[in-house]
């Protein structure tokens, strides 16, 4: 799965392989799960963090496999 975020300056960022995200204080952090479950846990890998007040939208992009 992939997430696409839009920042307040209208720049778009793509976070590939992210399974989810959550708020961590002033940051929104995107994670890749451990592969055994689709749940975020302490074993999830942090992929990227952004200041939450800089994000205007978060969109989940589901890639179609051929």
Outline the structure in words.
The protein has about 70 residues and is an all-beta fold. It is built from no helices and six strands. The strands form two sheets. Strands 2-1-6 form a three-stranded antiparallel beta sheet, with no helix packed on it. A hairpin with a 2-residue loop joins strand 3 (about 20-25) and strand 4. It starts with a strand and ends in a 5-residue tail after the last strand. The mean pLDDT is about 85.
What's the helix and strand layout?
Layout: E1 2-7, E2 12-16, E3 20-24, E4 27-32, E5 45-51, E6 55-61
Cα shape: flat
Strand fraction equals over 45%
Low-confidence stretches: none
Count of separate DSSP helical elements = 0
Radius of gyration (CA) equals 12 Å
- SSE succession: EEEEEE
Which range best describes the helical content: under 10%, 10-25%, 25-40%, 40-55%, 55-70% or over 70%?
under 10%
Strand order of the largest sheet: 2-1-6
Total number of beta strands: 6
> How far do the termini sit from each other?
15 Å
Tally of distinct domains: 1
Mean pLDDT: 87
Main sheet makeup: 3 strands, antiparallel
Class by SSE composition: mainly beta
């Amino acid at each position: 799965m992939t997430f696409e975020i839009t920042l307040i300056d209208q720049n778009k960022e793509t976070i590939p392989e992210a399974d989810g995200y959550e708020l961590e204080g002033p940051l929104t952090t995107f994670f890749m799960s451990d592969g055994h479950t689709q749940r975020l846990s302490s074993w999830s890998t942090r992929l990227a963090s952004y200041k939450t007040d800089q994000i205007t939208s978060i969109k989940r992009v589901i890639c179609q496999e051929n």
